[in-house]
Sequence to fold (230 residues):
Amino acid sequence: AQSVTQPDIHITVSEGASLELRCNYSYGATPYLFWYVQSPGQGLQLLLKYFSGDTLVQGIKGFEAEFKRSQSSFNLRKPSVHWSDAAEYFCAVGAPTYSGAGSYQLTFGKGTKLSVIP
Amino acid sequence: NAGVTQTPKFQVLKTGQSMTLQCAQDMNHEYMSWYRQDPGMGLRLIHYSVGAGITDQGEVPNGYNVSRSTTEDFPLRLLSAAPSQTSVYFCASRNSLNQPQHFGDGTRLSIL
Fold:
């Protein structure tokens, strides 16, 4: 079974600083990879996804992530953080199932809470 | 464009009571799933469905039942609520192809 590790429970950065949130996964083949963001009291919003192809993925709100097979990682980055980026971020791995073409089951990491200092 | 709609948004139950959390989507998605979110635990899959009439268990299915009589609806039933089921519940749906999941806004459930 697949698993996801987000090593950092809580990260604090200054507004305008760069950001990198770490995500490591365990899966025997190439999984589907996702980053979601959750603001307090809200549902989850997809930031970006990787299914195949270019290992550097661009997402919404200026985020990007890079899939590194050799390190089993899919770290999320942003060059300049804004105060509105304060939220909780979840990395997720989708392992294909036999239920149908493209079908997969998601496993989430435990999340990284991001605080932004003005 | 409603997306994934969950009702109710908040609910308080007493131990032993039963209730159904509703989830509806208007995107004709085949795949629907229920997660619970607990502090420090991320989201854990309870049950999922790959189409009408087909359901299966996820990581934490005990104490919950589901059914999928239509493509649009995927209700989650708590047969006898327990305090350990206090959580925030999220419903999600997606196309069966390589598409990401769309999440509802969640149901915050407290069991006393």
